[in-house]
Write a structure and sequence with these properties.
alpha/beta; DNA polymerase, domain 1; 2 domains; 8 strands; 40% helix; binds magnesium ion
Length: 222
């Protein structure tokens, strides 16, 4: 089995951190002041969010694409500077569920996240997760669409482990309708938790395999 974990709203939360750090990195790299008070980040890739924010402010999509490398370095630096001011912590049950899953034989763990790569270890460590627990990953600077990320993770899982995972052996665990959609786009199984961005009603309507209020509830079914 391969489990592909989402980060924000699933493994951890850091209320307000994303908006502040994104505003600062955008100002530094693109020279514009973005007000993200009403921007909805849930389930989106950082690349997708940047296009939504910056194109209306007159930044060309090509410039966004070309700047992703320097943007993520800047964002990780801003995040490192301020993260102690935010209460970044595991969501209830998340650390316990992950710890129990990691003790099982024949289960590989990866990350599928909308976050750009450079910020992922900063966030994980702040919440007490070791980034080395997730040797497989696909990130939010690698595509505008989250649906493109699970295939990247599956390729990397095969390269790392030397075996191919059948879609029925792969679980995406997330907190948004986008997590459900990205799993289904690759024929994967999907479980979602109500600790994050999307409402229980919206998650239910998107028909995940499992919908739980606490990730520990997955330990009896996965
Ligand atoms: Mg999420």
């Amino acid at each position: 089995m391969l489990i592909l974990w989402d980060i924000d709203g699933t493994l951890l939360r850091g209320k307000g951190l994303g908006k502040v750090v994104t505003e600062r990195a955008i100002a530094e790299i693109f020279g514009v002041q973005a007000d993200l008070t009403h921007h909805y980040f849930g389930g989106k890739t950082d690349w997708g969010s940047l296009l939504e924010i910056l194109v209306p402010l007159g930044v060309e999509p090509e410039r966004v694409a070309e700047s992703l490398g320097i943007y993520m370095v800047a964002k990780a630096r801003h995040m490192t500077e301020v993260i102690d001011q935010y209460n970044v912590r595991p969501l209830p049950g998340a650390m316990e569920a992950l710890t129990a899953m990691r003790q099982r034989p024949n289960v590989a763990h990866g990350i599928v996240t909308g976050n750009v790569q450079a910020t992922v270890p900063v966030k994980l460590r702040a919440a007490g997760y070791d980034p080395d627990w997730f040797p497989i990953a696909a990130y939010g600077h690698e595509s505008v669409s989250r649906n493109d990320l699970p295939p990247l993770a599956l390729q990397r899982a095969a390269a790392l482990t030397g075996r191919t995972f059948a879609p029925s052996e792969v679980w995406v665990i997330g907190d948004t309708v986008s997590d459900i959609e990205c799993a289904r786009a690759s024929g994967l199984r999907v479980a979602v938790v109500t600790t994050g961005f999307d409402s229980r009603e919206n998650l239910q309507a998107a028909q995940p395999d499992y919908l739980v209020d606490d990730l520990r509830d997955l330990l009896t079914v996965l």
